[in-house]
Amino acid sequence: MSINEIMLAVFLINLPFGYIRGNAARFSRKWIMAIHIPVPFIFLIRIFSGLNWTIIPLLVLSDIAGQIAGEKLRKYNFQRPNNK
Q1: 9: which residues sit within 8 A by CB, 6+ positions away?
Q2: What distance in Å separates the CA atoms of residue 10 and residue 58, rounded to the nearest whole number?
Q3: Among the listed residues 37, 44, 35, the one whose alpha carbon sits nearest the alpha carbon of residue 1
Q4: Which secondary structure element, helix H or strand E, spans residue 72, and what is its range?
Q5: How far is CA 10 from CA 40, 77, 81, in A?
Q6: Greatest distance between any 2 Cα atoms in the chain
């Protein structure tokens, strides 16, 4: 896998968790779990990709970007008016 594919996978893994985290109270159990549950999956992706540890900062950036994008998606969905 290329670095771009791995970063995209990490971003996509974190989108739903950022969505969930967007509704949780800060430092609550739900908030902490939404941040930490994807970490083992990201670790496994990095191990099985065969890339060395130098990719970790890029994965952290993708992780944060996915969390933030998921939270923004949640806010966007709940601020949209229902046009029925």
Answers
A1: 1, 45
A2: 10
A3: 44
A4: helix 56-79
A5: 11, 22, 31
A6: 52
User: pLDDT of 11-62, one tens digit each?
Assistant: 999 999 999 999 999 999 999 999 999 999 999 999 999 888 899 999 999 9
Task: Identify which of 13, 3, 65, 71 has the alpha carbon closest to the alpha carbon of residue 41.
Answer: 13
Rounded Cα–Cα distance for residues 71 and 25 (Å): 13
**Better-scored residue on pLDDT, 81 or 69:** 69
pTM of the model: 0.86
Distance CA 30, CA 20 (A): 8
